[in-house]
Amino acid sequence: MPIPLGVAGRLVIYSKSYFIPMATTEGVLVASASRGAKAINIGGSAVTLLTSDGMTRGPCVGSKTLERASLAKAWLDSKQGQAAKTDAFNSTSRFDSLEAMDSVLAGTNNLYIQF
Question: For position 84, which CATH number holds?
């Protein structure tokens, strides 16, 4: 399934202009990034520093009850759950590997999975 491509920007970093391609189905996300770039540009230019290189994903799993969300979290955090997640993740790419994964309960039934 193709994902639409939007272009945000112009973003000025160290006095050089960049356009930012964004593959997303959320057009408003591209518009929001463009507004942020405009605000930065009004201030003159951005200064940036890379302190770490990594990837983050954060799906939210909704459950019907807090008890079900808690059981899902307990399995995800177990050795069996960790092994299953690592095997599944590592089977999808020869370039990436799962380094860590955490899960956090929020609200009455939401489980946020961070990796």
Answer: 3.30.70.420
Residue written as token pair 């929020």? 106
* 33 and 66 fall within a common domain: no
Q: Which domain holds residue 29?
A: 5-42
- Specify the pTM: 0.48
Tally of CA atoms within 13 A in the half-sphere of 25 that contains its CB: 3
Count of alpha carbons within 13 angstroms of residue 112, beta-carbon side: 9
> How confident is the prediction along the chain (115 residues), in pLDDT tens digits per residue?
788 899 999 999 988 999 999 998 888 999 999 999 999 999 988 888 887 776 656 788 999 999 999 999 999 999 999 999 889 888 988 887 888 888 888 877 889 888 7
10 within domain boundaries: yes
Amino acid at 32: S
